[in-house]
Amino acid sequence: MAWGFPIAMYLFLAGMGAGAFLTAIVAEIYNKVMFRPLIRAGLVLSGILVGLGMPFLIADLGAGRTQPWRLIWLISNPTSPMTWGVWVLTPFIPLALVLGWLEVDFFNPPWRAARWFRALALRWRTRLLQIGALLALAIAIYTGLLLGVVHGVPLWNTSILPMLFFVSALSTGLAACVVYSQFTAVHAEHDGVHLAKSYFYVNQIHSALIVTETVFIFCWLFIVANGSVTAAQSVQLLLTGEYSLYFWIGIVFFGIVDPMLIYFYEVVLGKPLSPNWILISDSSVILGGLVLRYLVIAAALPVILI
């Protein structure tokens, strides 16, 4: 394994956080009244999720933990995708946290400076959302680009991987927003049943994302399997080898089949699902997204030069 589980968690949380922010942006543009809980969820979660991913990155840095002065290379090497990520993540996290702060009432200290800053952030909210959308888009693509440019690992070195991670980021981010809004529905202006009704069309959009992700997974594995011997061995590890159980249960069942069956059942019935089914389907999507990142890292075999 070229990298460990901490990097998989970092990629997963960063992608899901970026996807949650983009979900909030789309919901705000489409119907900010109907999807108000979805907007709140995306803005509250995005900065927290991306921020939680950073300790996992630091935990996997190796020498950087014992020789912290070497971390300067993370921001001073413009040819490295890792540096690009730091440039994007550094402004995104505080920006998203500020926008999330504007959505909650429980952390609103009475200090004059805090009231002034909150009023300033509210006045610039639209501009902050625009900047955040660009940064979130870059983060969602970057999580796949970071691996895709590694020439020594055939499983990663394909142009499909950034697109796969981007679609997965959108899917897991949307799922995280739905789950959060359902759990907090009792404290918001919409109850869980009303949310389930408003998400009837959202689930159909989510179905399209899952179908797109499935196509990308198939194309990615097919192209990689027909590459080098090392690449074929990585695919074999996923489909029939050491990681096959995780692949077929974690990605195929939980990430694809389970939510698609629930969404298909909703379309056949022609009526919204109950809140419990919504939680099951979207939690399944989140689990599938985590397993996908882990297996992409775990099954990666480097090319051995003789």
Q: Could you give a short account of the major beta sheet?
A: none
The total count of strands amounts to 0
- SS-based class: mainly alpha
* Percentage beta strand: under 5%
CATH superfamily: Formate dehydrogenase/DMSO reductase domain
Helical proportion?
Answer: over 70%
Helices and strands, in order, run as HHHHHHHHHHHHH
The level 1 CATH classification is: Mainly Alpha
> What fold name stands as the CATH topology?
Formate dehydrogenase/DMSO reductase fold
Instruction: Tell me, briefly, the overall form.
Output: globular
Rg (C-alpha, Å): 20 Å
Low-confidence stretches: none
Tally the structural domains.
1
Q: Calculate the terminal CA-CA distance, rounded to whole Å.
A: 19 Å
Describe this structure in words.
- This protein is mostly helical and 306 residues long.
- The protein has one domain (5-298): Formate dehydrogenase/DMSO reductase domain (Formate dehydrogenase/DMSO reductase fold).
- It is built from 13 helices and no strands.
- It has helices at residues 5-31, 36-59, 63-66, 73-76, 81-101, 112-123, 125-148, 160-183, 192-198, 200-225, 229-239, 244-269, 275-298.
- Helix 11 (229-239) packs across helix 12.
- It is globular.
- The two termini are 19 Å apart.
- The mean pLDDT is 84.
